[in-house]
Amino acid sequence: MSNKPSIDDYLKTGIYGMKEIKPDERNRFLGTLRERIVVALTQQQVKEPGTYLEVEELLRSNPKAKLYLNGQIQYSYLSDYIKLANKYGNPFTSVTNKQSKTDIGLVLAYDYAIEKEEVFLEKSRESTKEEEQNKESIISKFFKNLF
């Protein structure tokens, strides 16, 4: 037997498309594989005001890594990360896959495996406390001005 594709292989490729490795993983991580990821943020994290300092540091220290942005998120949330990618020379792309839903909003990844253990950033408790204090001070200022 030869290793040449048969007519059935050509027909299946024509009907179903090329075979993909780990399609569920690619759908979740905006078209890339988990083993290639430097950092990933959820949609909720991307929608928070400002940017994550860790992401900026990773963009700066990984200039050949590509930034994948979820195209279903409004541009206003993504614009700060796009500016950072331009600032540090990282290529970026917006990924819109209407056939599948994902909780991922941003992925910084290489085109080869790096096998990083932890790719998700968790919000530190300190920044959460700072935000709560800021909210309390805004509310107290509002009520002081009101009365």
UniProtKB/TrEMBL annotation:
Determine the domain of life of the protein's source. Answer: Bacteria
* Record-linked InterPro entries: DUF1694 (IPR012543), Ribosomal_eL30-like_sf (IPR029064)
Q: Looking at the Swiss-Prot or TrEMBL record, what is one Pfam family this protein matches? A: DUF1694
Stated name of the protein: YueI family protein
Species, as recorded: Bacillus salitolerans
Q: What is the lineage of its organism?
A: Bacteria, Bacillati, Bacillota, Bacilli, Bacillales
